[in-house]
Amino acid sequence: MEAKDLKVGQQVKFNNDRLWFTVQACNERFIVCNAVTKADTYHTIIDLDQGVRGDDNLVFHQGYDDREHCEARLKDFISGEIEISHRNRVPLVIVDTKNN
Question: Which residues have C-beta within 8 Å of that of residue 56, sequence separation ≥ 6?
Fold first, then answer.
């Protein structure tokens, strides 16, 4: 499956990552995903135009705990208020997907 075909609720696994991330919000350019573990909530944002994924460029990376927060973050990416960190971005490589 190509990243552009991902839908809210699907799970995605990336290369070099042991977690399954759940798609929480998306538009034609950005896909906001999170992975909730017992210890923490992790996030990654996919930029389809640039073919990369990574954390946001904010210091504390807050606002990815649930779908509502992720939808709000998506609006921040669309407006350009925040972007994917240039330091922590990696090429987008999806190794598997599944429907939740």
Answer: 43, 45, 73, 77, 82, 83, 84, 85
